[in-house]
Backbone:
């Protein structure tokens, strides 16, 4: 069984080409694959399938808005095997993979996700290094909530970017202070976020940039989260009293650029295809 491994600002994924949606991605299989000791290790899995095939296989109840049966669909799974609606870094790596593997030849196309079709613009897609912009769509502010870390309460804004986020801008936080936080298990209000939430901690905007760390639902702390950088940019702009602008978001795994205009966001950043190979069939079967 073929796989590739890639990352977007060190948010890493196992990519499984499966155009006809034949693979059984049971949660325990995904969790084993993403385990950094028993498996290949990754923050998530990107199954590369046609939208229509996923519907026919019963993986999707129907085609999400803005996606076609023949579109390539990013069937995203978190490292714990759970399904998430959207993954911003995943879409960048997915589009790079499609282009580098000649499954797509157009510089602009739509990637299907459970949160709808995401138009992408591929600026570069070498065999290893890529650069992709994703039209992330509408950024919806859900209202104020809080996160807790080590007994300290952080004010944040709930933001829906297809998946749920709680972005906490702390005016007292510096890049150095951010690095000392323990993001193992931040607390949040389950009444506000009944489906769980991805939580971002960040500095206010300084010279067009913010520094951010993230705890992802279904994964734990990761070195980057694309939807999280969009939520962070929206929260940082709001903190500055503005609802539009361009923000460079610096995460432990690198940096990305987020543009917010008229309530929509665009995410641009690098993608790296690190390796490809074959999974042991016997190993994969032993997980089922
Ligand atoms: N890393 C992703 C987000 C993946 C999904 C998230 N963990 C969730 O459960 O919503 C990104 O780059 O956006």
Residues:
């Amino acid at each position: 069984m073929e796989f590739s491994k890639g990352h977007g600002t060190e948010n890493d994924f196992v990519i499984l080409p499966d155009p006809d949606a034949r693979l059984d991605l049971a949660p325990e299989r995904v969790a084993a694959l993403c385990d950094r000791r028993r498996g290949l290790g990754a923050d998530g899995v990107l199954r590369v399938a046609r939208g229509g095939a996923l519907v026919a296989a019963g993986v999707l109840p129907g085609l999400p808005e803005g996606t076609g049966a023949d579109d390539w669909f990013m069937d995203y799974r978190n490292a714990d095997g759970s399904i998430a609606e959207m993954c911003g870094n995943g879409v960048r790596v997915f589009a790079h993979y499609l282009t580098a593997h000649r499954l797509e030849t157009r510089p602009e196309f739509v990637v299907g996700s459970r949160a709808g079709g995401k138009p992408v613009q591929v600026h570069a897609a070498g065999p290893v290094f890529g650069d992709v912009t994703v039209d992330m769509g509408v950024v919806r502010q859900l209202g104020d909530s809080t996160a807790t870390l080590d007994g300290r309460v952080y004010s944040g804004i709930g933001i829906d970017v297809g998946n749920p986020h709680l972005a906490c801008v702390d005016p007292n936080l510096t890049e150095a202070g951010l690095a000392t936080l323990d993001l193992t298990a931040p607390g949040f209000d389950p009444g506000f976020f009944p489906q769980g939430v991805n939580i971002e901690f960040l500095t206010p905007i300084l010279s067009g940039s913010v520094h951010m760390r993230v705890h992802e639902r279904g994964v734990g702390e990761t070195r980057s989260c694309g939807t999280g950088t969009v939520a962070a940019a929206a929260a940082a702009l709001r903190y500055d009293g503005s609802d539009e602008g361009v923000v460079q978001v610096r995460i432990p795994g690198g940096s990305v650029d987020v543009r917010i205009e008229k309530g929509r966001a665009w995410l641009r950043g690098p993608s790296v295809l690190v390796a490809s190979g074959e999974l042991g069939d016997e190993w994969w079967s032993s997980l089922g």
